[in-house]
Amino acid sequence: MAEGGPAAQLKESFLKLYTNRPKPQPISTQYEKKPSIQNAFLLAGQSAIAGAVVAGLRNALSGRNGGFVTPIGLFAAVGASFAFTESVVANQRQTDDAISAASGACAAGFLLGISAARSLPMAVGACSVMAGFTGLHKYSGGMQQHQPDPAAEKKSFFKPTAIVEATKRE
């Protein structure tokens, strides 16, 4: 092949690409602030859609018109209070952990308890239950699935029986 052939040109361009490559920057462990208002409006909108679905189902299944405004507004307020409180607490503590999620859930639960039963004990109870479950969920890693090693799983699944072990020894 000629010295200036396609293989040499490809090799030259490959070497240029990988020798002049910038070095990767280290991953920053610094906390990035969450946009509290943006998160609140985003989750309020999503919760309002869920509230519209719930209101529609409630009206369709009950056979009477129970109103659309109350569930939509309640769902939107609960979603916004959760997102806003979680973001503010995470920004103040400069860490996104179970405590910030639990505080957001407590605010949402308190709002639900006040609006549903109109009693302070119900509001405090809803706050503690939602904070407990949400904090535990965040602390335990959420719904992440454990990805075991496929080879180890296969080895443990097909355990040799006593007969197989006896025939191997013979």
Question: In words, what does this structure look like?
Answer:
The chain is mostly helical. The chain has a domain of 104 residues. It is 72% helix and 0% strand. It is built from seven helices and no strands. The chain is extended and about 80 Å long. The mean pLDDT is 84. One of its GO terms (cellular component) is respiratory chain complex I. It comes from Mycena albidolilacea. It is found in: Mitochondrion inner membrane.
Count of individual beta strands? 0
Taken in chain order, the helices and strands follow as HHHHHHH
| Oligomeric assembly | single chain
The outline comes out as: extended
Mean pLDDT equals: 84
- Helix coverage percent of residues? over 70%
Number of helices: 7
Major β-sheet, in short?
Answer: none
Residue ranges: pLDDT <50 for 5 or more in a row? Answer: none
- Measured on Cα atoms, how large is the radius of gyration? 28 Å
How many angstroms separate the termini? 60 Å
Beta fraction of the residues? under 5%
Helices and strands: which structural class? mainly alpha
Membrane topology: Multi-pass membrane protein
Organism: Mycena albidolilacea
InterPro entries: NDUFA11
Subcellular location: Mitochondrion inner membrane
